[in-house]
Design a protein that fits this description.
Helices cover 36% and strands 26% of the residues. With 220 residues, the chain is an alpha/beta fold. The strands form two sheets. The chain has a six-stranded parallel beta sheet with strand order 3-2-1-4-5-6, sandwiched between helices. It has a five-stranded antiparallel beta sheet with strand order 7-8-11-9-10. Strand 4 (73-76), helix 4 (82-94) and strand 5 form a beta-alpha-beta unit. The protein is elongated, with a radius of gyration of 22 Å. It binds adenosine-5'-diphosphate.
Length: 220
């Protein structure tokens, strides 16, 4: 049997990134401890989060008093102050927090956090920049790239996929992509099957190797 997932998280740094992350997790039913060394910022979030504290988390003792070592997941959402970001990450690692996410503001910063041992490093501005590049340059309405060169894309159906059932148009063997969802204008998304006939103007969700997916969305 799987253990119930621990839905508690400590978010260190309540700037733009940390606060939006914390609030989204609250909406998803998580218990969130938000910490910032700026009292004014903490006050702004005191009603929205489960617990808040004003503390300088570069101090290992202060962090321990907050009980952060009892959390299985913590996010270091400090960017601008790279030294503080590294110290807080090191403190969490020393305390054995098993699942540490850290935000970096540059690739160098990200590399250091990885070398320190942060379990997940995110580079929001770089990652968003790459994502928007895909949206700007292609016909994709939405784009998510996973590790290992695999992507999920929302796009207007190209003509090669329309008019006949997906099983017949054989987009998977011909184009290396799988159509997983379809949305008729004015309707909700439904799962696509081999019998689904995509019509002109339908919006579809496609997965596959990034290059294959991109090439597919460029077809007409
Ligand atoms: P963003 O770009 O997401 O707004 P910032 O790096 O500007 O990120 O914000 C980081 C937040 O982390 C700020 O609110 C800042 O007060 C807080 N912070 C910085 N250093 C510490 C620290 N040592 N302990 C706790 N919070 C800190």
């Amino acid at each position: 049997a799987r253990e119930a997932r621990d839905q508690r998280i400590a978010v260190i740094g309540l700037g733009r990134f940390g606060s939006s992350l914390a609030e989204e997790l609250m909406r998803r039913g998580w218990e969130v401890l938000g910490v910032d060394d700026d009292e004014r910022i903490v006050q702004q979030h005191s009603d929205a989060l489960t617990h808040v504290a004003v503390a300088d988390c570069t101090d290992a003792e202060v962090l321990r008093q907050l009980g952060v070592h009892e959390f299985t997941t913590a996010v270091v959402a400090i960017g601008t102050n790279i030294e503080a970001s590294m110290l807080v990450t090191a403190n969490l690692l020393d305390d054995g927090v098993p699942n540490i996410w850290a935000k970096a503001i540059s690739r160098q910063h990200g590399r250091i956090l990885e070398r320190l041992g942060a379990h997940h490093v995110v580079l929001p501005e770089y990652e968003m920049g790459e994502r928007v590049a895909h949206l700007v340059s292609g016909r994709m309405l939405d784009f998510i790239e996973f590790d290992d060169d695999f992507a999920l894309v929302k796009t207007i159906a190209p003509d090669v996929a329309t008019g006949v059932p997906l099983g017949v148009s054989a987009v998977r063997t011909k184009h290396g992509v799988t159509v997983v969802g379809i949305k008729r204008p004015g309707q909700d998304f439904t799962h696509a099957t081999a019998e689904t006939v995509v019509e002109r103007g339908d919006v579809i969700i496609v997965t596959g190797r990034t290059q294959a997916v991109e090439a597919f969305t460029e077809l007409r």
